[in-house]
Amino acid sequence: YYQFLVTSALQNIGVEREQWGEVINYCANLAWFMHYSGEKNISEKALENFNLTFSAEFTKVSFGPRLRELLEAGFLVKLDDDISFKYPYLHYYFLGQYLADRIHEQNIKDVIVNLCEDLHLRENANILLFTSHHTKSPIIYEKISAALEHCFDQEPVFCFERDVQTLNSLVESA
Questions:
Q1: What is d(CA 113, CA 103) in angstroms, rounded to the nearest whole number?
Q2: Are 101 and 27 in contact (CB under 8 A)?
Q3: What is the pLDDT of residue 173?
Q4: Hey, which of 11, 18, 104, 115 would disulfide with 124, CB 3.0 to 4.6 Å?
Q5: What are the residues facing 42 on neighbouring strands?
Q6: Contact call for residues 117 and 126 (beta carbons, < 8 A)
Q7: pLDDT score of 50 more than 80
Q8: Rounded CA gap, 5 and 77, in Å?
Q9: How many whole angstroms separate alpha carbon 116 and alpha carbon 145?
Q10: Cα distance between residue 39 and residue 33, in whole Å
Q11: Residue 151: phi, psi to the nearest 5?
């Protein structure tokens, strides 16, 4: 569904299908850049610097047209001098794509473990949810499972005979 929203937005603004992968890769790298720097919003200058780095590492991208394209597609929004992903799901979708594409790299495994350590935080849960959407690798499921094993270490094991007595009394009294 999210991929449909992203590709439909690109199609609606006239981006050629052959360019979709590069634009999505750009957004995935941008989401990682923002996450890694701990920022939800960045200045236009910071985005321009990101663009220069991306252009040097992947493929040359003209900053002005790319910014207009991402704003027009509704991926980014500009408020005053701050630029951010327009909707949280876009940030999670693209960040999940970035992590999934690099899930076998040790630093990304470490990021996933750190996210799992605080799985109760909505942001972490959303990042992991979207990462799992983008990959079939068992690594993410193993890391989530390992984190969940320790969630209730201090709690007694559920016992049907003992622990459903209150429910049974409610049912019997109804």
A1: 11
A2: no
A3: 84
A4: 115
A5: 83
A6: no
A7: yes
A8: 16
A9: 9
A10: 9
A11: -65, -35
Instruction: Please name the residue that has the structure tokens 């003992």.
Output: 162
Cβ neighbours for 98, distance < 8 A, ≥ 6 positions apart:
28, 29, 31, 32
Which residue has 């559920």 as its token pair?
Answer: 158
Taking the CA atoms of 103, 69, 47 and 19 in sequence, report the sign of the dihedral they define.
positive
103: Cβ contacts below 8 Å, ≥ 6 apart? 109, 112, 131, 135, 137, 139, 140
Provide the token pair at 48. 């321009």
CA distances from 31 to 39, 53, 157, 172 (A): 10, 14, 40, 54
Q: How confident is the model over 58-109, as pLDDT tens digits?
A: 999 999 999 999 999 999 999 988 999 999 999 999 999 999 999 999 999 9
- Closest to 84 measured CA to CA, from 98, 99, 70: 70
Nearest to 122 by CA among 85, 91, 94, 145: 91
The Cα 55–Cα 74 span in angstroms is 22
Quickly tell me which residue has 């609606």 as its tokens. 12
- Other beta carbons within 10 angstroms of residue 72's beta carbon come to 15
**Cα 2–chain centre separation:** 12
